[in-house]
Amino acid sequence: MKKLTLTFCALSAVLIVASAIYADGPEYSGKEKQVMQPAPPVCDLYRAHEWDLDIWGAYAFAADTGQFHVDRDDPFRSRVISEGGTEEFFPEQDPFVRDIGTGFFGEPKIFNPNERVNIGQVSKNELFGRDDTFGGGVDVKYFFSRYFGVGVEALGLAAKTNFAGGGLATLTARYPFGRFAPYITGGIGFIDGGATLFEFFNEKHTFNTITAGPDQGTFVNDAHEREFFTTDPVSNHHLRALGQIGAGLEFRVTCHVGLMADFTWNFVFGQEDHGDKFHLITEEGQNVITNFGEVRRTTTIINQAFELKPGHGSDHQDFGMARFGVTFSY
């Protein structure tokens, strides 16, 4: 009984001492490894309630490419049938600008001192005035969920000698996996500007003025008449509706910076669609011959030509656009 009591007292003493030694936790020697804290979780690359800012450059190409052939004949040549039945053409005769109500080409020189007539459309595309061009833009999107977002977009394109720009409201759906997120997008908005190329017949004259004597007045010097053709843009001056659909891919480099690339097709809808119209120009002037202030002879000069008035609309303004840019996400 005494041995049992002694043994029990010894075990109790050992437990008391052990509790005192380890009261403040175990002590580690310098050779033992320290416990490492776990790394913080990686940020979510694509999030709900996310704001995205995209800045991009674009290559755009027209749906209607190529050019029309335009006949470069002088539209104001005189057509004469000779006695032998042969058809001959001669340059027009410009009447003297002696009367402010007539003038050459049948109109006062103060209104139009040089003839300039549109003889035909050159570019098939009626937005860029050429087959392709470059541009850029920016859009801001708010993703109310991880997969869907709404936004606004502004774009600008370098049309022929005239800027074409517009804006859209957009809807985007994406499917993130890892650092990648393929997406589809669509929008509706407006576009303005752009141009169509037309061929013009030009005729410049030299005017001589006699201030004294019986033949005083202003007249056209036919010996210094110059005729030539130019291809010039005719600018668009009305808003058109713009629709857009596209698909692309985004790659997140970090949680807040990414790269994007996509392709969009853009439909232009005109408020009005009017085709080109031809109409016959018939202008009349008087060639008055005087001698010492007395009218000796009066000749009526008639010039005729077909003039093309450009139509306006959106039938030939659709275009594709490949975009490459940077995304900033917050």
Description:
The structure is a single chain. With 330 residues, this protein is mostly beta strands. It contains one helix and 15 strands. It has one helix spanning 2-21, and strands at 50-62, 78-81, 87-90, 115-121, 132-143, 148-159, 162-174, 180-193, 195-210, 217-235, 240-252, 257-270, 277-291, 294-309, 319-329. The strands form four sheets. An eight-stranded antiparallel β-barrel has the order 1-5-6-7-8-11-12-15. A three-stranded antiparallel sheet has the order 4-9-10, with no helix packed on it. Strand 11 (240-252) and strand 12 (257-270) form a beta hairpin. Mean pLDDT is 75; it is low at 1-8 and 93-112.
Secondary-structure blueprint of this entry?
Blueprint: H1 2-21, E1 50-62, E2 78-81, E3 87-90, E4 115-121, E5 132-143, E6 148-159, E7 162-174, E8 180-193, E9 195-210, E10 217-235, E11 240-252, E12 257-270, E13 277-291, E14 294-309, E15 319-329
Antiparallel strand pairs: 1-5, 1-15, 2-3, 4-9, 5-6, 6-7, 7-8, 8-11, 9-10, 11-12, 12-15, 13-14
